[in-house]
Task: inverse folding
């Protein structure tokens, strides 16, 4: 049973940066393609970015291209979401999710994923 854990959230001023991390217990995260999603109060869960198990493939939501970057460490056991130039509208709970197969554009669909973390809160103040 794999368990995903997000970390790195917090409160930051507009224009600032945060780096979120996703790790796993039970199985190594290198076995999985990983996606990041976010959910603001009263809104649906929204795709942010995804990366394949090898790190070779990535997929981004159109609204995050440029300021946000998804990556994996060399051992592939941690997936990062580097978020720059944050705006108040980026405030949300950020979740990582995992699937054993890289699904390309399917990585943007929450129902595609088998495993979810508990989320980490990101708050951007104006």
Result:
């Amino acid at each position: 049973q794999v368990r995903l854990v997000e970390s790195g959230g917090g409160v930051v001023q507009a224009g600032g940066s945060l780096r979120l991390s996703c790790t796993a217990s039970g199985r190594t995260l290198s076995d999985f393609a990983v996606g990041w999603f976010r959910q603001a109060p009263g809104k649906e869960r929204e795709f942010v970015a995804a990366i394949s198990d090898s790190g070779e493939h990535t997929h981004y939501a159109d609204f995050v291209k440029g300021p946000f970057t998804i990556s994996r460490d060399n051992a592939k056991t941690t997936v990062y979401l580097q978020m720059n130039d944050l705006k108040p509208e980026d405030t949300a709970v950020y979740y990582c999710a995992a699937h054993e197969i890289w699904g390309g554009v399917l990585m943007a669909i929450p129902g595609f994923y088998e495993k979810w973390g508990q989320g980490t809160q990101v708050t951007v103040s104006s």
